[in-house]
Automatic annotation (TrEMBL):
<dbReference type="GO" id="GO:1990429">
    <property type="term" value="C:peroxisomal importomer complex"/>
</dbReference>
<keyword id="KW-0576">Peroxisome</keyword>
<keyword id="KW-0472">Membrane</keyword>
<comment type="similarity">
    <text>Belongs to the peroxin-14 family.</text>
</comment>
<dbReference type="GO" id="GO:0005778">
    <property type="term" value="C:peroxisomal membrane"/>
</dbReference>
<dbReference type="Pfam" id="PF04695">
    <property type="entry name" value="Pex14_N"/>
</dbReference>
<dbReference type="GO" id="GO:0005102">
    <property type="term" value="F:signaling receptor binding"/>
</dbReference>
<dbReference type="InterPro" id="IPR025655">
    <property type="entry name" value="PEX14"/>
</dbReference>
<protein>
    <recommendedName>
        <fullName>Peroxisomal membrane protein PEX14</fullName>
    </recommendedName>
</protein>
<keyword id="KW-0653">Protein transport</keyword>
<dbReference type="InterPro" id="IPR006785">
    <property type="entry name" value="Pex14_N"/>
</dbReference>
<dbReference type="InterPro" id="IPR036388">
    <property type="entry name" value="WH-like_DNA-bd_sf"/>
</dbReference>
<feature type="region of interest" description="Disordered">
    <location>
        <begin position="1"/>
        <end position="34"/>
    </location>
</feature>
<keyword id="KW-0811">Translocation</keyword>
<feature type="domain" description="Peroxisome membrane anchor protein Pex14p N-terminal">
    <location>
        <begin position="43"/>
        <end position="88"/>
    </location>
</feature>
<keyword id="KW-0813">Transport</keyword>
<comment type="function">
    <text>Component of the PEX13-PEX14 docking complex, a translocon channel that specifically mediates the import of peroxisomal cargo proteins bound to PEX5 receptor. The PEX13-PEX14 docking complex forms a large import pore which can be opened to a diameter of about 9 nm. Mechanistically, PEX5 receptor along with cargo proteins associates with the PEX14 subunit of the PEX13-PEX14 docking complex in the cytosol, leading to the insertion of the receptor into the organelle membrane with the concomitant translocation of the cargo into the peroxisome matrix.</text>
</comment>
Amino acid sequence: MSEETPSSPQTEARNVQQSDETKSTPPTASSLTVNALNPNEVDRNELVSRARTFLRAPQIQNQDIFAKRKFLIDKGLNEPEIEQLLRELPPQLPNVPPRTYPQLPPSGLPTLLLGIVRLFSWIVGGSTLLLFIYHRFLMPRISQTSRARCSLKTHHLTLLQKLNTSLKSLKEAQSNAFAVLPSPELYKEPVDYSGCHTVDDVLQQAEKLKTETRSLPHITLLRCGIEEFKNRSGPEDSAVPSTEELFQVLESKIPWLVSEDGVAFEHELWNTLSNSAVFESSDAPGAEGQTSAATHWRYIAPEPVPPPPLTSSLETLSSTIFQGRRTTSHQRTLQSLSEFTGYISTQVYAPYRPPSSITSNPLNPTPEDELKKEIRALKGLVLNRRSFLPTIPKTGSVGPS
């Protein structure tokens, strides 16, 4: 069944008008009289009837309603006439699809399955290749590196354990060794300043040692200040200085303490005075009208620390050991000469012994032979000792220029 191509409403209207003109009969006398009486109304009715015939044509019935309305407006019909003509049309049935359908396209499922299979084959092949490379090349190196790290970590732990063990043994040995060593004296004064009893003595000793005032020992300055205050006040034991009096004594002897740097040094002296155990403080009752009592200071010499048993035994041993006098090569030579002179004098004043026979017996040598032998031996001894003496450089000798 061939499908007819729909024609446009304008062409169909022309065809309908031509067919109406061919089929129309010649006008009668009555129609001519009507047209002559009302020509506008006759033309309008004829236009509406033609439009109705046009709309009822089978080719136009399937057209769109908007196209029909546009065609009627172009022909000169007004809106009420168009609405009336459209209402007179039979209801338009829906388009029935053709009974024959086109052939369905081929299914793409096999192609899709083939693509999925190819994709999975590529994935499996690539994974297999990567696993082979990993187990063949990377896995041995990684395992070797991990084993090396584990061994290195184990070695480090072993060394740390050995270090801890050695440290513990060292601490035990130190504790055992420190037990026999003398304990340090916390408030021991320097030996150079221990014999000073006044601030002037401390300053003179500092000039000898070329020491600055800020480097003087604090305990020595405070002790000498307390002793000097006692000497000024009198021989009474109860004459102890207060804090202000002690620092006044020090400032009168050392004017540098009044300066800015000296104030900082005075703070250090105050810290030593208040924190050191060799200085004892006592609060004296204040005068009337004074709320706070003055603090007086007294110096208490620290008790000497007894030497440990090891030091005592070493001192006893050193005192019992004979310490020979230091001799030189000249003293040995003089001693040898004096012994030789004494021997000669003893031989000179010895009684005379006449020979028993003219021929001397080698088994019984004469005194003269013995004297000659001893002289030769002594001469050889002196020569040998002189050859092995060390060379002593002369003080007045000057090296080659």
